[in-house]
Design brief:
335 residues, alpha/beta, eight-stranded mixed sheet, four-stranded antiparallel sheet, 33% helix, binds iron/sulfur cluster, binds magnesium ion
Length: 335
């Protein structure tokens, strides 16, 4: 079966203007030629540090910013070829939930008005049924009917995110892009909202593209995971492969940041030095070479291709030319 979403060679370059004539003098290569797919009913996460291009990817798929190049095939159709009007209609099937629900909810509208407006824009239910539908939506996300006439500021952060979810789901989308959707919430509230998202996924056969910097959150929700660094995909895999046998040094570094009990694992931690380089002039060769503990000469000039490591697992690193590596061995050798 064809994937619900197929992203091919997506690029998002933002021009930098400068000089006395305000000409484009360079580009921020926020997303630089990435390809991946998302199957129906799956949760695929994109993870990486801030500035790696994960949010830009989500926005480019929805054309909130027009991508520079590539294809975004959704249900067999290239979204980048649609007219603005056609794209607006498509938004019924592709919704986004943002990190800060407060910023995206109109403070002067009651919850009922917010939800009725969403229903009206896409005309999903006849006017007469909207009142009833609002109540169903509130109940669906664990709120109740008597909260419908309150304003966003009268709710807690977690409740506001539930309203954001209700609004996104009101139009019965197929794909929901969650951009740091639980990042602003307390850890205990995070778990509740993640569990709600999972429950709704099962009930409504939703597909999620889940964007997050938090490996702990990603582990909780994902079927497959995409790791990005400086605009590139460095590793992709099913959750089990990625967490139990991460193969790109950068993925291992990201995972090293989450606490583990296993003492053997502790010894194999990779602690990153320095900051993420600028996406304006990213390092030549492997973009991770300025921070990689295993850097070799060729890494500085030659960009590593993706190497297939398992049925659903691949990573872009020269160390993986002959298949997966044993990091406990490798780390002993460099110490
Ligand atoms: Fe490190 Fe080289 Fe692999 Fe890049 S290609 S991650 S620099 S070993
Ligand atoms: Mg972001």
């Amino acid at each position: 079966k064809a994937p619900l979403l197929q992203v091919e060679n997506l690029k998002q370059y933002f021009p930098i203007k400068g000089g006395i004539f305000g000409r484009t003098i360079n580009y921020v290569k926020a997303v630089d030629d990435i390809s991946f797919h998302v199957n129906e009913g799956e949760t695929v996460s994109i993870v990486g540090e801030s500035g790696c291009g994960k949010s830009t990817t989500g926005r480019a798929i929805l054309r909130l910013e027009e991508p520079t190049a590539g294809r975004v095939i959704f249900q067999g159709q290239d979204l980048l070829k649609l007219s603005k009007a056609e794209m607006r209609k498509k938004r019924k099937d592709l919704q986004i939930i943002f990190q800060d629900p407060f910023a995206s909810l109109n403070p002067r509208q009651t919850v009922r008005q917010i939800l009725e407006e969403a229903l009206a824009i896409q005309n999903v239910v006849p006017r007469k049924q909207r009142r009833q539908r609002v109540i169903e939506l509130l109940e669906m996300v664990g709120l109740n009917a008597d909260q419908a006439d309150r304003y966003p500021h009268e709710f807690s952060g977690g409740q506001r995110q539930r309203i954001g979810i209700a609004r996104a789901l009101s139009v019965e989308p197929k794909l929901v892009i969650c951009d740091e959707a639980v990042s602003a919430l307390d850890v205990s509230v995070q778990a509740q909202v993640l569990n709600l998202l999972k429950k709704l996924q099962r009930e409504y056969n939703l597909t999620y593209l889940f964007i997050s910097h938090d490996m702990g959150v990603v582990r909780h929700i994902s079927d497959r995971i995409i790791v990005m660094y400086l605009g590139k995909i460095v590793e992709m895999g099913d959750k089990q492969s990625l967490f139990e046998n991460p193969q790109h040094p950068y993925t291992r570094a990201l995972l090293s940041a989450i606490p583990v009990a296993d003492p053997r694992r502790k010894k194999e931690r990779i602690i990153l030095k320095g900051d993420v380089p600028s996406p304006i002039d990213p390092p030549q060769g492997c973009r991770f070479h300025t921070r990689c503990p295993f850097v070799m000469d060729r890494c500085k000039t030659e960009a590593p291709p993706m190497h297939k490591l398992g049925p659903q697992h691949e990573a872009a690193c020269h160390l993986l030319e002959e298949g997966p590596v044993d990091y406990s061995q490798l780390l002993k050798e460099i110490k």
